[in-house]
Amino acid sequence: MTTDKKIALVTGANRGIGYEVCRELADVGMQVILTSRDAAKGEGAAEALRRESKDVSFHQLDVSDEGSVERLRQFVQAEYGRLDVLVNNAAVYLDEGVSVFDSEMAMFRTTMDINFYGALYMCRAFVPMMRERKYGRVVNVSSGSGALNEMDSITPAYSISKAALNALTRVVADQVKGYSDIKVNTMCPGWVQTDMGGKNATRTPAEGADTIIWLATLPSDGPTGLFFRDRQVIEW
Length: 236
Ligand SMILES: NC(=O)c1ccc[n+]([C@@H]2O[C@H](COP(=O)([O-])OP(=O)(O)OC[C@H]3O[C@@H](n4cnc5c(N)ncnc54)[C@H](OP(=O)(O)O)[C@@H]3O)[C@@H](O)[C@H]2O)c1
Description:
Blueprint: E1 7-10, H1 16-27, E2 31-36, H2 39-51, E3 56-60, H3 66-79, E4 85-88, H4 105-133, E5 135-141, H5 156-176, E6 181-187, H6 205-216, E7 227-229, E8 232-233
This protein binds NADP nicotinamide-adenine-dinucleotide phosphate.
NADP nicotinamide-adenine-dinucleotide phosphate (NAP) binds at residues 11-12, 14-18, 36-38, 41, 61-64, 89-92, 114, 141, 143, 188-189, 191-192, 194-197, 201.
């Protein structure tokens, strides 16, 4: 399929911040691939956005399954021949209030598999494709919980997974720096009203999505390899 529109892909986009990001990337003129591990939920979400006249298609993706990521990579390569924007948004938050000494190791591994290895698989699949075209914007949706300077012990697995995601951001940004227009950044959306954030959260999904959209649409002289909240650099 040939199109002049930028092609954007969002992980974990059947609900929450990822869903809102799909809507807003479509609003700025991109063709959006909404992905979800549950096909029925993802199809439903994409269909709801199409009813709002957004240019959104669906593809199944479990980010923790390297084979699933590879099938998606092959689909994107065959269908579009490129990917312009990648938003690594999918995550789980499974250990609030559970001591690092008491949590199940299986929960720790699941958290790392989705929150860290999922983004690693996605970067390995899609950043080389971006490098071929010498253009790309990667936005890793992290959290203040992953900032080493303010890290506590409230959500051990989640916090460590987001710190690893931040480290991945630095490594990938450095790998592509200098010879192509690829920006790789990480960000915290703040406390957002979603299934993860809960009803008492202070921000709407649109407020949480704002910095993601800004990073996804950075100009060529924009920043790379940095950690943001509210469009401002924050400490690691
Ligand atoms: N909400 C907040 O206050 C807050 C604060 C800081 C950072 N964040 C970050 O913002 C991002 C979005 O969070 P949210 O609040 O929108 O969370 P959410 O409502 O819980 O949505 C999480 C999404 O990730 C998907 N997901 C989970 N495991 C997956 C897998 N293996 N493969 C593909 N998708 C998977 C979920 O799919 P299912 O529906 O199938 O479970 C869901 O679509 C996350 O990275 C989160 O860590 C959120």
